[in-house]
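Consider the following assembly input.
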Amino acid sequence: MTALLVTLIVLTLIKSTPIIYAALGGVISERSGVINIGLEGMMAAGAFVAVAVSFATHSPVAGVLAGIAAGACFGYLLAFASTRFKVDQIVAGTGINLICAGGAAYGLVVLFNQPGASPQVASLGTRYWIMIAGAFVIALFLQWLLYRTPWGLRIRASGENPSAVVSAGLDPLLLRTYAVVISGALAGLGGAFLSIGELNLYSDGMTAGRGFIALAAVIFGRWNPLGATAACVVFGFFEALQYVLQGEVAWLPANALQALPYIAALIALAGVTGRVRAPAADGVPF
Amino acid sequence: MKRTLTGPVGAIVLIVVLMALAMLVAGVSPVDGFRALIVGALGGRNEIGETLVATTALLFPALGICLAFRAGLFNIGAEGQLLVGALCAGAIGAVLTIPGPFGIIVLLVAGAIGGGAWGAIAGWMKARFGANEIIATLMLNFVAAYFALELVSGPLRGPLAAGAETAWLDPKYWLPTLLPGTRLSIALVLAAVLAVFLQWVFTRTVFGYDLRASGEAPEAARRSGINIAKLTWLALTLSGAIAGLGGATIVTGELHRFNTQLSPGYGFTAIAVALVGDLQPLWICLAAFGFGILESGGLAMQASAQVPKDAIHVIEGLIIFVLAARRYVATRVEGGPV
Amino acid sequence: MIGREEPALSLRGIRKTFPGVVAVDGVDLELYPGEIQALVGENGAGKSTLAAIAFGELQPDDGEVIARGAVGLVHQHFELIGRLRVWQNVLLGREPRRGWQIDAAAARARVLEIAARYGLEIDPDAFVETLPIGVQQRVELLRELDREPAVLLLDEPTAALAPAEIERFFTTIVQLAQHGTAIMIVTHKLQEVIAYANRVTVMRHGKIVARALTRETSVEAIARAMVGGEVPAVVERAATQLVPTLHVKDLVAGSGATQLNNFFLDVRGGEIVGIAGVEGNGQTTLADALTGMCEYTGVIERRGTLGVIPQDRHLEALVMNWSLVDNALLGRQHRKAARRGLTLDRERARHDTQNIRERFDVRAASLDVAVRTLSGGNQQKLVVGRALIDGPDLVLAYNPTRGIDIGAGALVQSRLMEARNRGAAVLLISFELDEILALADHVIVMYRGAVLGSFDRAQFDRAEIGRMMAGSQ
């Protein structure tokens, strides 16, 4: 029983980590006024690029860094499109999801000549604990950044009323660009954890909607980093629970159980929306 | 004139240009690449049949998505709705024992009800709690996929099935073939009729007017006496029903059984189809044909010209981007009071 | 004083065009330290564009802006962030720091210090959204004052203030001017121009058409210069038979500062009842309750049909991308007469729209152009026409002339008066006391969601009503 509980806790931490990174990205982006529907795609980009670079350099650390950079690039693409070209944020995010998922699948064929999944590459191994701890450290850091520093105040102001930010002599579009790039970097980091932290390869569809679960966590966590982190741990718990139950309780429907984290996210979404208030200019182009 | 330049035709031209670029990047002459694509998609009776099969499979969810988008609701769960519709048709079709024509109608209705119910969950969540429909519909895709897998791995699995699929439908429940010698069924005609019908609904009916008003200006719509909650619920339900109907036509017209692999992401590609079609049902028909060519020709292109088929998804994403940006540029150029 | 010193702000040959319109057409303007200059003009005359150019928010196509020192701008629609505290709003972008963090204590002290310097009361830790409009404006003003501007531009600063607050506001402004700040007020309230400004500049169609010292001119003369002729008259009030139409009793709705508390009123056919009050005292909740847009308890009894002119034409009344025909149908699309079975009667809709276009003088290239291409005045005339075309028994008009030019405003007021004269009951909610006094047969003063007093036309007392609007009984 104790062993089972320990497994459950460890698995919860492992399963929460990628969602936490993505959700933190979601928080900072939405606090600045941009809804990042593209988190899912940015995670996929991070996951794939991390594997590709780890494959090429045999250095998983380089892979993680490259994953961060890949996410940041797509973050910049979203920021650029939504701030300079006023592309609808939802449409742009959907585009990014298609580009990243398609691009990774294309990349598997071009780089490894094997569709579906990459070969195994050098992974972080036991060092992935650093990334798990890092998720919580970054959550604390972002909480401090948003609520204690001038830059955080300005980011929050951009998400509430960008015209007021202009009146204060600042450029809300620039602030949003920074926030969305950071958002992409964090999602890329979450993706890298998925591919070369927890595992050692990239396979098509491995992000499995985690970017969207992260968006639900942002809402559930009331748009603040620690709240979103807590929500991710809840969703991570359900994912872990499903694994543990699958192994332990034979009569449970194994495939249906896999839907557990998504159902949890749906219930959280329905239960909490309406009782929380999004940033006033969240998703509103400026 | 302006309409043609900035409208869907421009988008299709753009796709061709982007694809040519993708081929160049992959080190393939666009001439060879397009030849492979066109021959693969339109080179013979069978190829044309397969292209139109893909067109049909894309057209249903795209029309469903179009209806939701027109109401301002971002339904990205067409994939799940299509799957649930197909599952309902497949599950019932495997055990049905009534005369053929009625049976077909029952299966199509079952698909529409299944997909509609799946859409209705998101609609209810949005109307009742204000839950974000983007996240809800996407989550429901996964729930649908896992539940379908569970069901066809166990209780609904056909006795002779090799994988996770239901038993085959009795041939009397197969949709009549449209193009003899191919897998193309009259589902294509059904989809086209549906597109015309939707066009009529949008432009002529009170419901269509209310739907468009809610999408364009929700607050003004609410104040004009439209019950937004009811409309939200109804729009997502109908949107899901159309996608579900599409799923049922895949089962009755193409595969003749339900299989968890039955959609290679039609519900997602359909988002691009709907957007490229400028959310206008008749243009969407054209866009679906274009993407149908890519879907069926893409495999041939991959085999003979070494351009991976997945490049198409990258192009879809880019197209969505460029289209949205172009709309902004067009409104800027047209001007108007600032 | 004027003329001897260097101007704090000079605009030379300013020209600015937007696609299809020349907003500002070769304007020269100088503003001196210590003066209060009023810039007046109709909507669309170019005064807001000029203010934005002076502030540096817009770049002119031609001409130059020379400012000696910082330029501050207090917006008509406050640029504040409701969910942040007062000090966070005031010092956004100039936050005092301690290391990497914001020094909140220093920030509070700094806000209190500026506030004290100008005799403004403020709680630096209050969340802005919890403050009344008048205090919010103080926050907006403090933000500009913190930058110690040499030039201060005020865009319609008193639009949302009660008469008493207006006086208090100008006390601060006059004090600022005495300290040497150059002040320009963009406004349409001509009484205030005469009372507080030294100089007035009038714009029409992007050009300056008159300049005067306020002690040498009058409200009437300024108005004539603004319109470029005589101000159009409103239709006369006719004798009517009064028929009970709307009865409201014990109405409770909304929450917070705009909650209605046992609100009551009666409107009879053949009269205009005006709701006088400062913005944010529950008028919106009242309008929402009457139109079924929010939940309420209490009695609302209405006889006959309702025509509504919503407060915000962009957000609540029009679909900007739609044609005149489609917009003219909005809110009327569910009537039996508008449909043929499941479909809309397009011919009838066109016919109705043409009717509105003619009777309400909606100037548009055709019935099929998008309403976003229309001027604000023409958009509003369409909204008003739509509300009145079916001859409703009750008309709810919420700020029906806000933000439109005088000619369009006079037409709207005339049509409302005609509706009254033919026997309709008209409920007029307006933040412009002058509009209410001009049109209403009966005035109800609304304060914090309750009825504070009511007056028949014979007993109208502007000063008394003004005091009540600020809450004194």
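Residues 33 and 305 of chain B are 6 Å apart (CA to CA). Ask yourself how this observation constrains the way the partners meet.
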